[in-house]
Each structure stands twice: as structure tokens, then as C-alpha cells.
Amino acid sequence: MAENLTEVLTGAGVLAVAIGFAAYAGLAGTVGRTGGSYPLHASFRSVDGVSVGTEVRMAGVKIGAVTGLALNPKTYLADTSFTVKDGIEIPDDSTVLISSEGLMGGNFVEIQPGGSPTNYAAGAEIEDTQGAVGLIQLLLKFVGKAASGDGAKDQPAGGAESAP
User: Fold this and answer.
1) Which residues pair with residue 83 across a beta bridge?
2) Which of 79, 96, 121, 160 has the highest Cβ tally under 10 A?
3) Which range has the worst mean pLDDT, 73-82, 119-128, 144-153?
4) Which tops the pLDDT comparison, 2 or 8?
């Protein structure tokens, strides 16, 4: 009888801890979701590594999320919709680009703010964009540049070649 009581109490304890974790996870998911957001749009040549839900960042801080991706059949560009938290104003000369978290990290949408005194209104189209650059493309460009001899030549400190 004592063994059954121990098992029941242990099971109740485990269940209580599981409910506590579930409640904590539910509350943690809502923390930071204060206020609303407004939509903006941009078109990119390439959105590799970006999908709905991808973070939108400014200065490394998450300020929104991608809400839609679609191919524009007329321009063959990727039309992207995203949100920005209310209270964060984006100058109308800002640049939006697809950035990478590192060599093996994922991509995110980055907003580099401009210096204009006027800001984008909700639903505006940001014209100045830069699409994703693939790692393979970047490496091929670097290797091609090195192979063509565009790099700096080895010269002594004075800049002139010394005679033997």
C-alpha cells in the first residue's frame, strides 16, 4: 500500500511540474508582444533563406517579422511583406537587405536606417533593397578575383622594388 501511495505522489508531482512548464511556456511566448505593428513592403532579387516568420532586425534587434513572400510575375522579383513594431519609425531613405547570421547561420531581413527627416507610412514600398548573396557565389567571386591577380602584389615596405 505504501508503494502505491509513493507512486501516486510521484506521478502527481511530475504532472504538477509539467503543468508548471506548460504555463511558463505560454506566458513566455506572450512576453514582449506589446502594442501593434504596421506593414511595409519591399522587392528583392533573391530571398534565399527567408520565409514567413523570419525576423526583421535593425541594429541587431528584432523589430518585426516577414508576413508574406510572393513572386511578382511581371518583374520576376520576390515581393516581400513584413511588419515593424509600432513606435519604430523607418526613415524613407533606409535600405532593406537580406543578411546572414554567419557562415552556417540563417538569413534575416535587416533594415539599415537612413537619415531622412520623413518616415515611411504604413503599407509603403521600400525601394532601396539588396537581395541575399549565396555563400557559393561569394566564394567563387573571391577565388576568381584572387586567380585573376587583382590582389595586391608583394612589395617591400618602401613601395619600390629593391635591386638584388
Assistant:
1) 39
2) 96
3) 144-153
4) 8
Q: Which of 112, 93, 104, 156 is nearest to 135 (CA)?
A: 104
Q: How far apart are CA 157 and CA 87, in angstroms?
A: 54
Q: Which residues lie closer than 8 Å to 120 by C-beta, 6 or more apart?
A: 40, 89, 90, 91, 92, 94, 126
Strands 125-126 and 129-130 turn out to be: unpaired
Cβ 69 vs Cβ 54: under 8 Å: no
3-class SS string, the chain: CHHHHHHHHHHHHHHHHHHHHHHHHHHHHHCCCCCCEEEEEEEECCCCCCCCCCEEEECCEEEEEEEEEEECCCCCCEEEEEEEECCCCCECCCEEEEEECCCCCCEEEEEECCCCCCECCCCCEECCEECCCCHHHHHHHHHHHHHCCCCCCCCCCCCCCCCC
Indicate the range of 13-17, 32-36, 52-56, 65-69 predicted with least confidence: 32-36
For cell 535587416, name the residue: 110
C-alpha cell at 40: 511595409
